[in-house]
Amino acid sequence: MNDIDAWVWWLVGAAALGIPLVVTAMPEFGMFAVGAVAGAIVAGLGFGAVAQVLVFIVVSVALIAVVRPIAARHSAQRPQLATGVDALRGKQAVVLERVDGSGGRIKLAGEIWSARALDSDRTYEVGQAVDVVEIEGATAIVI
């Protein structure tokens, strides 16, 4: 065991840290693995054990301090692309059959939808443009 260079041990450590990264999907293990690779580089350049451990700690902590908050921000963001009924909210439609509080028909995104007015006292006549505010089941709520 004494014949193996320190940089090899650092690479073995990096590989060992990569295993829980894959199994648990915790990115912190990947950051520690990168720190171990940095330690291997320092060992390969001929620095002592203290320098190797310090580089490992500094690189690992720096990655956790910088990358982790960025990753958390990205995971908290909603997707920019709205799909399904979410994509229909805010779209304009054309009234095909009179729409009031009890129902009617509109043409929305090239399809014919049942619709009803958000305000039950309002009515929209054929050919009038309306805005979709919500989708409830297969019914568009319009204003």
TrEMBL record:
It is a multi-pass membrane protein. InterPro entries: Membrane_assoc_protease, NA-bd_OB-fold, NfeD-like_C. It is found in: Membrane. The keyword Membrane applies. One of its GO terms (cellular component) is plasma membrane. Residues 85-142 form the NfeD-like C-terminal domain. The chain crosses the membrane at residues 6-23. Keywords: Membrane, Transmembrane, Transmembrane helix. SUPFAM superfamilies: NfeD domain-like. PANTHER family: INNER MEMBRANE PROTEIN YBBJ (PTHR33507). This is NfeD family protein. It comes from Streptomyces antibioticus.
